[in-house]
Predict the structure.
Amino acid sequence: MELNEVRSKYLEFFKARGHNVIPSSSLVPENDPTTLFTGSGMQPLVPYLLGKNHPAGNRLVDSQKCFRSMDIEEVGDNRHTTFFEMLGNWSLGDYFKKEQLAWVYEFFTEEISIPKEKLWVTCFEGDETLNLPKDTESAEIWESLGMPKDHIRFYDAKKNWWSRAGVPQNMPAGEPGGPDSEIFYEFTDIVHDTRFGPECHPNCDCGRFLEIGNSVFMQYIKKEDGSFALLPKQNVDFGGGLERITAAVNNSADVFPTAHRPIIEYLEARSEKKYTGEKVFSNSAEYQNTRMFRIIADHVKAAVFLIGDNVRPGNTDQGYYVRRLIRRAVRYADRIGIAQSSFAKIVRPVAEMYQDQYPELMEQIDEIESVIAGEEEKFRKTLARGMKELERFIGTGNLSAQDAFQLVTTYGFPLELIIEEAGEKGIKQIDIDGFKELLKQHQDLSRSGSEQKFKGGLADTSEKTTRLHTAHHLLLKALQQVLGPQVHQRGSNITQERLRIDFSWDAKMTEEQKKEVEQIVNEKIKEDLPVIRNEMAKEEAEKLGAEHEFGAKYPDRVSVYSVGPLESAFSIEFCGGPHVERTGELALSTDPSTPLGAKFKILKEEAVSAGIRRIKAVLE
């Protein structure tokens, strides 16, 4: 069964059970300074899980695009990918454990025919010190569905509890959370590796078990005294990796043949080498080829989707990761014999593979190919400089951890290439352990950024950030009035200190243009216009000319914010909020000594990439 078929069956299965299909959000979270990428299926839904009403109702289903930057160095084995899709179904105060577990079990065993005997589940074992009961309810439901008792395991809060703060002890007062129940597929033909413990079990890391789904039950709220009470409105959040589920359906411990087949076939045809799917711990030449195939396939796919969501290669933020993905893929493509002139053509198999679910990739294919080809050309120039950099160490006899780290992060050298070249160039000693420690620190930094969002839930909704969010709407409209209607948002980042907007424009703004934009925004602040949230059909919002993110998909009903009444609004945008009630609130200074008279001010205007400019601005 192919990836697209599994996704389609899942969406249709839950649609038939009263769920509304909602589109995937962008890989770049909107107005969220806490993380660079959407890294989980629940991330865009957190506000609704915490009580906000969703325009599409209280039963939702989706397939969410995800990217995890901290996994780049892990790609190459049979399971890790940077880009993946997370299948999700959600109950916002509607059904709960009985319906959820029955449905997901039915989907796995009947709809996509995973053998029942291959499934295992885990439940929360409880915490006596916090008076949190063992989740026997979920276990009993599983058993009633036909799950053997010895295939039901209990684990502590580190494995089977979800809250934005992690384990129950870390939850602040007023924080919701609850137990979860994970589903695992067992590859019975894989022999347990005792290096991971004497006994194999669902949470063992030996490779015999693969997690394919997790039902989170947001059931409790933490009280001021540290105890827990039941939430009056309980939610369900299910997430299941599409690539992993498809691998399980095909009983393949390797996710790449099913999740990247057209890309691998293209690489085989162009390189005249074969993807053999050797085991993870093999050191054979065939496995090394397989490993390079996996890296190229994953990195190109991720780069295509990121570029499709308006991220361009660069030296900072999201652009850094697109650049790194492309450059690492180019290096390995060279090693398996992919010609320079045909590298960017890998884009087409990716776009064709996803053309039904994400048609925007085919619509942008020429642009995406052009971006990747341009980055490849820049990298080859950088690579030449990197080789000269490596040659500086010839004769010194050693390469420090910091120098190796710089070659990897600045020049895009894979560590294997450094080792290979250093052997040929007479560098006898490389501080590999020190390099790995520096890399681990770098990965931990990336991971903490992703986890901050996953556990931290909503983006910063402080008063300062909310005011700057509203100023962001005013700024975009002012830019369109000064520069022209062709200006559209291409990215944003809002903190308590400043706002940042990336927008489509191909020339440096003049001082006069910047002053005019500032004047318009400050006039609208002075007019004290109401900021109004409206919920309406997507088609109605489009007819009103509501500004929306380029290439993004929206549900049939959307939230729209207008500055001023709809019939005479200064600006109208698709947006989930939050915002101030009136623009006059933006004039309130954040400095207690000068409580009135804050003004909008542009701090900096600069180029980000070809055709994209960036403004940083404040209220002061």
User: Anything to note?
Assistant: Residues 535 and 559 are 5 Å apart (CA to CA). Residues 3-249 form a domain with the BirA Bifunctional Protein; domain 2 fold (CATH 3.30.930.10). DSSP finds 19 helices and 18 strands in the chain.
